[in-house]
Amino acid sequence: MLIQMNSKFIQTIPLTLLFVLSLLFTPSSSSEVSVSVSTQTLSKSGDPVTIKWSGIDSPSKLDWVGIYSPPNSSSDDFIGYIFTSSSPTWQSGSGSISIPLVNLRSNYEFRIFRWTESEVDPSRQDQDHNPLPGTKHLLAKSGELGFDPGRGPEQVHLAFTDHEDEMRVMFVTHDGKESFVKYGLREDRMDQSGGTRVVRYEREHMCDSPANHSVGWRDPGFIHDGVMKNLKKGKRYYYKVGSDSGGWSIACSFVSRNEDSDETIAFLFGDMGTATPYTTFLRTQAESISTMKWISRDIEALGDKPAFISHIGDISYARGYSWLWDNFFNQIEPVASKVPYHVCIGNHEYDWPLQPWKPDWAAYGTDGGGECGVPYSLKFNMPGNSSELTGSRAPATRNLYYSFDTGSVHFVYISTETNFLPGSRQYNFIKHDLESVDRKKTPFVVVQGHRPMYTSSLEYKDAAQRKRMIEHLEPLLVKNKVTLVLWGHVHRYERFCPLNNFTCGSMGLNGEDWEAFPVHVVIGMAGQDWQPPP
């Protein structure tokens, strides 16, 4: 069809007709790209959403779905991404994916991007050295998706206190309003109650990037801390947390501590982390799902026997990307709401360039992602009152060293990231604690820390620290006949003979010549499977 128009004719055409003509004779492009979600409201963390898209012209394997929270985040500040090619129908320009989401206390939005091979930027890489997807060509945005605010608290987890007849419970809400814990010996009669203390931290409390940068910071919510008191020994208690106005959690239960028992059941590991249903800036730990699965199975099999979990450093591997803490607590809640969950600090919770104790020989770097121990210190509350000032606007670092008895075992937790040399508060604590153990009551003593004193790993950068630990801490362990020493940091299982200064304890055929040196075991294989080169 040939159409000829002169300028005089065009001047007489109404503007509305010009618009219609422009639509008729403009070369046709692809249909409009759209992206939608299956629901606008999810009930609780872990609930799935289906993301659908259509209209992508000449789809590419590099096209991707960006996951954003809050919705006003800049395009580069996604929390994760999934390539559209993960959908079996992606080549048609349409597809869908379903993923579970965690409540981040702000809405989600999903965006479709076109990314081409020519735009791959080698300077923008994730931790595995894969290029991060480009955000230059935004094709579509979804509507917002949120969570029901009346469903009650999340991230429920337990811990021992300094008193045998107590159990601590912590959880997160979106608004910080007054909340409570109700508990009792029957699920239908929770006739005891207590209030909670509320804390939170802000972006300015973080010490370095990415924790204090828009790419890593997200609102952590309000952290509640309550204590259930006057518990009878070795009894199953039922509890729930929340409020009438904000909603209550589901009813949970635990078995209270019994120090008179001659049986101790503990699940001990290090370096677990968390898994995500999307790719993000950092390596996540898919194997952590199996760890929680098998522990949950074993807890159910124990029935009414008390137990606890010990996670010795490298907790969530958030490293400054705060939503990974939310993901972690959502992942552990099915077990941490049933048994106490105890921790000690690792390099990935703490280390940052200006940390206050950083001797020349230490291999402390930037592994904490700028968190400088803040989320770790406030999201957990372990027994004791150990703390160290950060030398910055951040609150003091807590949960560094402490101990407790359960059954026939005395457990000691130490920090390998803060001062442990003679004269330090930590050294004095370790010395006094080990010397004060009643071995008739607790004949077994287990010490736990993150960086190992002994390992077959050829991590030369930690060699100087191991030398100081052997020089200064090992004599305390040997003198006080510590039974077992557990370490993480190295992502494998290693068990050594009873050791003292690289010398194995000897045992005669009749067992009478055995030297009671501590047995060292490395257990940093609960989730993280990547081992750094020497």
TrEMBL record:
Catalytic EC class: hydrolase
Catalytic activity, reaction form: a phosphate monoester + H2O = an alcohol + phosphate
GO cellular component: extracellular region
A Pfam family annotated for this UniProt entry: Pur_ac_phosph_N
Annotated Calcineurin-like phosphoesterase domain residues: 303-493
Gene3D superfamilies: 3.60.21.10, Purple acid phosphatase-like, N-terminal (2.60.40.380)
Keywords: Glycoprotein, Hydrolase, Secreted, Signal, Zinc
Similarity comment: family membership: Belongs to the metallophosphoesterase superfamily. Purple acid phosphatase family.
The protein's assembly and partners: Homodimer.
Name of the protein in its database record: Purple acid phosphatase
Organism from which the protein derives: Davidia involucrata (Dove tree)
